[in-house]
Write a structure and sequence with these properties.
Jelly Rolls, Endonuclease I-creI, 2 domains, 9-stranded mixed sheet, 8-stranded mixed sheet
């Protein structure tokens, strides 16, 4: 049995902070079993009398479990997070129109909708009044605190992880993150039973996580190059993530990281990599919901034969 962190008064927090003491210290290569509340700290499915976890405090962001210190992790190194398994809980909720935003007004989504889901892990489905969808569970938040002191919001994604909301980060993926602080101080949360690219309402099927087995390792770089933004090797292929104040900026960052990957994988110069990317790489909107826009560039597995 791997070391296990349950969401309780010892492990729960709603922010990133480099001075938050670790609740577990592990050697590189250790698999840690996490469990997590749903992102809103709810103690049960949507319905009358539903209450939040008693650990919830005003101003908290996502309910995170951690942090975990990885021995020997240093700023400038890369944290490799191998996602062995993600098992959602038995219920979830999707929200739409709950915030008055220009996006919702433009689309005519001005009446709040709250959609409860029943999750059947054995069948691999989630069912609501809207129908039945296939499960594709992943953790929306996997990340570390910034180097700057103080509490930092869990809402925006960061170059060192956090609320990435990338639907490709399913079991079988390895997420690579630049390490910003000594020991990494890694935390997780925001279980998603299923989500489309973009997370257009601002939420997925938000659910608790019964079990997420993650192997945490440390390496000096990725494919012989320094890492400056999240990158992942997923069942779908290599993914390079970009973040920005608008989609143009996010797309440019994602593409730049993908050109670095293509250079490392295939020995290409920048211009040759750009030509190849135009043929085989897909740019996808990761999410538009969390103050910072996200785009990921996907190089499908076996897209290039050499």
């Amino acid at each position: 049995m791997p070391p296990t962190l349950l969401p309780d008064e010892r492990t729960l927090h709603g922010w990133f902070d480099r001075d938050l003491p670790p609740v577990l210290t592990v050697d590189p290569g250790t698999t840690v079993r996490f469990a997590a509340l749903d992102s809103g700290w709810w103690a049960g499915p949507h319905g009358p009398g539903r209450e939040r976890s008693p650990q919830h405090t005003e101003g908290s962001g996502h309910a995170l479990t951690g942090p975990v210190e990885v021995r020997g992790a240093r700023p400038g190194d890369v944290l490799a997070v191998r996602i062995e398994a993600v098992v959602p809980g038995a219920w979830g909720t999707t929200y739409a129109g709950v915030r008055s935003t220009a996006w919702n007004v433009r689309l005519g989504v001005e009446q709040p909708a709250v959609v409860p889901w029943d999750i059947d892990v054995a069948a691999g489905t989630a069912t609501s009044t809207l129908g039945t969808v296939a499960l594709r569970p992943f953790l929306g938040v996997m990340g570390m605190p910034p180097a700057e002191p103080g509490r930092h919001s869990t809402i925006p994604p960061y170059w060192h992880g956090g609320n990435l909301d990338c639907r490709e980060l399913v079991a079988g993926s390895t997420l690579y993150l630049p390490i910003p602080v000594e020991g990494a101080l890694f935390s997780v949360g925001d279980g998603h039973a299923a989500q489309g690219d973009g997370e257009v309402s601002g939420t997925a099927i938000e659910c608790p996580v019964e079990r997420a087995d993650l192997t945490l390792d440390v390496q000096g770089d990725l494919l012989g190059r320094p890492l400056t933004t999240p990158v992942a090797d997923t069942p779908a292929g290599w993914v390079a993530m970009g973040l920005g104040n608008d989609l143009d900026e996010a797309a440019a960052e994602a593409l730049s990281a993908m050109l670095d990957l293509l250079g490392a994988l295939h020995g290409l110069g920048r211009s040759e990599a750009m030509a190849l990317a135009s043929v085989v790489v897909d740019l996808r909107v990761t999410q538009v919901a969390n103050q910072v826009f996200g785009v990921h560039a996907l190089l499908p597995r076996d897209a290039v034969r050499v």
